[in-house]
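Quick note —
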Amino acid sequence: MPEVGAGSQMVVVFFVLLLLRVPVAFALGLSALYAMWVLGFGLDLVGDLIATGIAKFSLLAIPFFILAGELMGSGGLAERMIRFFRVLIGGLPGGMGVVGTVVCLFWGAVSGSGPASVAAIGPLIVRSMEEDGYSRMFAAGLVCTGAALSIVIPPSIGLIIYGVVAETSISDLFIAAIIPGLFVGALMLLTLPFGGGNTRGVTGTPGLDRLAALSVDAEQPYGRRLVRAFLDSFWGLIMPVVILGGIYSGVFTPTEAAIVATVYALVIGAFIYRNLTPRVLYESFVRASSSSAVVMLVVAYASLFGWVVTVDDLVGQYSSVLLGLSQNEWVILLVIMLVLLLAGMFMDAVTIMFITLPIFLPVVRELGWDPVWFGVLVMINLAIGLITPPVGINLFVAANVTRLPLEKVTRGVVPFLITSMVGLAVIACFPEIAHLLIGAMR
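Predicted structure written out below.
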């Protein structure tokens, strides 16, 4: 069809390649190369475009935060954190359901990666929730959803990429995302009565007190158990304070914070908790390298994709279509949110951002929306995508660590999908939620 430009053809080719099960990164690169050929540009541009796309200081934070998360998971932080919160709030109504939710949110503040969070804390939380009476299916759903919020709660890899693409302050994005992320996480607690667990709290279930061989004598007074658990997990618990406090106080940038987090995790795991043996350290580096390579490969080929989008004025064409849908801003916002939600059912968060943000951001500027608030909305959408079939990556990781069929994990996620959608709607309707901390800190 002659009226379909090279950019539109590129989008069609990209989705065809996805249907053929071509890996996302290569689908981006091949479709972009096809469009460049149609436009008559030589392949000698490819190397320069890829180098320009990834040679950004802010992107250095991605591999370092991934490595820090791996080191924290291997260094024993997860077990100590669960044990501390188990002692602190395990006696509340909801028992280990409350503990699991809080640990997932807290882990998001030290990890930044949804799938990595499921792998690191999922087995411990699911096993403990089962011992407290929750079904394994429901526990898997809770872990999937709580870990997905790692992309919202800072330090978030997603927010870093959004800040780079949107040319928006990453520090402001981090600050703005804290309350919305915690709000959506708090809504998860509304589902606990439907999980079949002990709604009266746990006070001494034997299985729970054996958690990860870090038991505390249940016969001891609460204060003594709490102090022992706190001291045992102290260095891990203050890690978010070190990272986020350093960013917000201006001591270091988000990129530098990723390096600080990595060194901090190394020191804790190797010299304080002493779980980072040479073999464990090697395995952590291998997993982090693999995860980082996948993300950065997508970023590299997405730079080609984005260049074609700009050259063929796909941004102008599609943003004009969006603006022409309605004169009502809420209708346009609803369409954008639906596009992101549908995209999240089939693609990973990084790919979605590189494809859709160049189209959506001009609309955001045209309508005068705050890009920081919009970035928080995008992250919540993408977090929902992590738990939405058929390609919700958290679902696959949870199915692997719990040995449950994917269908059962998906059923367990349904109540949390509902509460997440409610949270998304509330933050969309009340943008001031994303500005509470920014205003307070200024």
